[in-house]
Amino acid sequence: MWMQDQWSAGRIALMVSLLVASAAICATGLFSIQFAWWRPPICWQRARILMYHMVCEHRPRTRFNKLRVPPEHFAEQLRWLSRNGFTFVFASQLFSDEPLPERCVCLTFDDGYEDNLTNADPILAQFNARATLYLVSDRSGGWSSKKKAHHADDELASEPKLTDEQVRAMVASGRWELGGHTRTHANLTALPPDEARNEVLASSVDLQTLYQTRPQTFAYPFGLFSLEHLPMVREAGFVGAVTTEPGIAARPYQEPLLVPRIKVSGNDNLFAFKMRMRGGKRGLFR
Ligand SMILES: [Zn+2]
C-alpha cells in the first residue's frame, strides 16, 4: 500500500513537472514569435523610417489606440535613439545623394493630427530631433478612418487636426518638413484614375500654395495603391514615396516609390520598439 502511494505521488510529481516544462516552452515560443529577439539586426547602415500617427494618451474602448503613442513612450523612444547615437533625418534627405552616417532614423507622421504639434513637437525639440509630416492638405472636413463605405466606425474623423497656422509654425521651427498624403486622405485604389491623379497632384500643389514648401516625398493613404499610381506620384514631382509595408530598405532605393517603413504601435513597450528598430518588425510576422 505504502509503495503504491509513493509510486502515485511520483507519477503526479512527474506529470506536474512535464506540465510546467511544456507551459514554459509554449511561453518561450509565443514570446519568440511576438518579439523575434533572436534575429540579428538588419545592417545599421540602412536608415530606419518610423511611421507614427498620433502622440497622445489612449482613449478607452476605441479601436485605434495602436495609432496613439503615449507622449511618455514617444519621449522614451527618442531618448533611446539619442543615447544610441542615431542621427535624425528628414525623408527628403533619404532620397537625395547626401551621404548619411550609419544609424540614421527618419520619424514620419501621417495625416496631420493636432497632437503632432502640441505633444510630439516639444519632445522633438528636447532631443534635437526632426520629423517629416505626411499632411492631408484639406483637413477641413475631417476624414474617414473607413477603408470601405459600409464600415460603421469613423473614429479618426473626429480627432483634432492641425490648422494651417499650426502647420506654418511647425515648418518655421525647422523641425518639420512636409510630404504629400493626397488632398482628402483618398483611398487611391477606390478612385477612377483621373480622380486619383488629381488627389496626388493636388497634394503637391496645395502644400506649395499654403505653406510655400515643395514636398519631396509622398505617403499612400491607408498604405493602399496599385502600380498605376506610381507614375502619378512621379508626375506630381515627388522623388520618393513610403508605404505601410514593414521593412528597412537600403539606399539608394531600388524602388524609390515603394519604400517600406517601420510601424510604431501605441501598444509597444520599449523592448518592442527596439525589436522593430532591429528587424523592421516587432516579431516574426508583424
Ligand atoms: Zn493616413
Account of the 3D structure:
The protein is α/β, with parallel strands linked by helices. 38% of the residues lie in helices and 15% in strands. It contains 8 helices and 10 strands. Strands 1, 4, 5, 6, 7, 8, 9 and 10 form an 8-stranded parallel sheet that branches. Strand 6, helix 5 and strand 7 form a beta-alpha-beta unit. Helix 2 packs parallel to helix 4 and helix 6 runs parallel beside helix 7. The longest helix has 34 residues. The model has no long low-confidence stretch (mean pLDDT 91). Zinc ion binds next to strand 5.
Number of helices: 8
Strand content: 15-25%
Cofactors and ligands: zinc ion
Termini, distance in Å? 57 Å
Order of helices and strands: HEEEHEHEHEHEHEHEEH
Structural class comes to alpha/beta
Spans of at least 5 consecutive residues whose pLDDT stays below 50 are: none
Instruction: Round the Cα radius of gyration to an integer and report it.
Output: 23 Å
* DSSP strand tally: 10
Question: Overall mean pLDDT score?
Answer: 91
What kind of oligomer do you see? single chain
Q: State the share of residues found in helices, binned by percent.
A: 25-40%
**What is the makeup of the main sheet?**
8 strands, parallel
Name the overall outline.
elongated
Present the secondary structure layout.
Blueprint: H1 2-35, E1 48-52, E2 54-55, E3 68-69, H2 71-83, E4 87-88, H3 91-94, E5 104-111, H4 115-126, E6 131-135, H5 164-172, E7 176-180, H6 193-211, E8 217-219, H7 229-235, E9 240-246, E10 259-263, H8 270-279
Parallel strand pairs: 1-5, 1-10, 2-3, 4-5, 5-6, 6-7, 8-9, 9-10
The site of zinc ion has 5 residues, from strand 5.
